[in-house]
Structure formats: structure tokens, C-alpha cells
Design brief:
Blueprint (H helix, E strand, L loop, with lengths): L1 H25 L19 H14 L8 E4 L7 H7 L5 E5 L2 H13 L8 E4 H7 L4 E6 L8 H13 L1 E12 L7 E2 L2 E2 L5 H10 L2 E8 L15 E8 L2
Parallel strand pairs: 1-2, 1-4, 2-3, 4-5
Antiparallel strand pairs: 5-9, 6-7, 8-9
Helix pairs in contact: 2-3
Length: 236
């Protein structure tokens, strides 16, 4: 009981510090540096989460010559090693938040990767200017924050910009969850059957690769993520 109380107290203290940090950054009273900026896209263990993403993509056959669209790239927490690994000009990251993309560009400069010529733009601009198709589309912890209309739009966009033999990897929250908010975005769980139905609508198939934990993912607090990794492909 004492240990449980200590864990609860630590969790509340940690979350309060994170909330205060984001509030100060959001109000302009503190400028996010390399240590702080990734709090815009998630809590804690940023280096571990960064390393896991590139490791997973390589395990799925990502090669330097492949082109990759990072759907919901955020502050490039996961994007930096991907940009570094891919050939010049082969990375495109998009996000809906201009402020977050501004931090992404700072992150890019701090890692001296501007020479890799990644494209980083808002989702609105992506609809206007992206005409190419990609070998890989990466949507890590993105679909769970989309309303039904935005989710449909994102999947349609991904299907349109995925090469005939390309793959879309996306995490999906599948545990029973009754709603909530995260930095102004909804938190929504959906069944695997829902994704199968949506994939069918856009000429895609979907395969579950297993839980994130089965693929080596670990949350900062040790709790199960409740998420599956899904692989979408065009129908043969």
C-alpha cells in the first residue's frame, strides 16, 4: 500500500511539472530547448522513443533509398534519426501545428541535418504541394488523436500518396477508452475491425503486427500502451 501511494504521488508530481513546463512554453515565458520541446508531442524518455522508431522501421525493411512521409511528425522526436538514415531529400514530415513545426526546424538545425534537405510543412500545405508517392508512410501515435472526419481524411490522403508496393505503418489505440483530451486533441480508441473496414473503403488491406510491447516498446511509466501496430498496403 505504501509503495502504491508513493507511485501515485510521484506520478502526480511528474505530471504537474510537465503541465507547468508546457504552460510556460505555451505562454512564451520559456523557450523550449532540445530537452523541453518534445514535451509538445509526449511525455518523457524521448531518446528511448526516438531510437525505438528508427529501429522498428529498419526491422520492416526501410532502406536509405526509400522515401518516407512522417504523418504527424511533431518536433522530429522520431524524425531526426530517420532523416539522418535516409538519402538526401527522401524525408517529408507534416503536422497540423505551426508552433510545433517551428520547434522541429530548430531540432533539425541543432542536429546539423539541414543538408539532408527534408521537407517539413503543415498538413494544409501538404494537400496543396505534395504530388509524389512514398515507399513508407509513418503515423506513430497519430490516429488515436483524430476525430472521425480527420481520421477519414488522413487515411484517404495516405492511400493516395502510398506507392503501389509501399506500406503505411500506424499505431492504433485498441483498449477500451472512454474519451479524453491531450493538448487539445481527442484521445479515441477504435477496434481492429474498424480499421479493416476503413482500409477496405480506400482500397487497402490492414494487418496487425502485434502490440507495441511485443515489438519492444516501453512506456515511461511501465504501463501497457493499449496500442497495436498496423500495416496498411494497397490491395494486390
Amino acid at each position: 500500500m505504501a509503495e502504491r501511494s508513493m507511485n501515485i504521488a510521484w506520478s502526480l508530481s511528474w505530471r504537474m511539472k510537465q503541465w507547468l513546463n508546457r504552460t510556460l512554453i505555451g505562454s512564451g515565458l520559456r523557450n523550449p530547448g532540445a530537452k523541453d520541446r518534445h514535451d509538445w508531442v509526449g511525455f518523457g524518455c524521448h531518446e528511448t522513443k526516438r531510437e525505438w522508431q528508427i529501429r522498428f522501421l529498419k526491422s520492416q525493411g526501410l532502406l536509405p533509398e526509400h522515401t518516407l512521409l512522417d504523418l504527424g511528425c511533431g518536433t522530429l522526436r522520431g524524425g531526426i534519426p530517420i532523416i539522418d538514415y535516409l538519402n538526401t531529400g527522401n524525408y517529408c514530415g507534416i503536422d497540423v501545428r505551426k508552433r510545433v513545426l517551428a520547434e522541429a526546424r530548430k531540432e533539425l538545425m541543432e542536429h546539423r541535418l539541414e543538408g539532408k534537405e527534408p521537407i517539413i510543412m503543415t498538413v494544409k500545405d501538404a494537400h496543396k504541394y505534395i504530388a509524389s508517392a512514398f515507399d513508407v508512410i509513418w503515423a506513430f501515435q497519430v490516429f488515436l488523436h483524430m476525430s472521425p472526419a480527420k481520421h477519414e481524411e488522413a487515411l484517404e490522403f495516405a492511400a493516395k500518396h502510398l506507392k503501389p508496393d509501399g506500406s503505411l505503418y500506424a499505431t492504433a489505440l485498441i483498449e477500451d477508452y472512454y474519451g479524453g483530451q491531450w493538448q487539445g486533441f481527442p484521445v479515441i480508441s477504435r477496434s481492429l475491425q474498424f480499421y479493416e473496414s476503413e482500409a477496405e473503403r480506400f482500397g487497402l488491406t490492414v494487418l496487425s503486427l502485434g502490440t507495441l510491447e511485443s515489438l519492444g516498446w516501453r512506456r515511461h511509466d511501465g504501463k501497457p500502451s493499449g496500442s497495436l501496430m498496423l500495416k496498411f498496403r494497397h490491395k494486390a
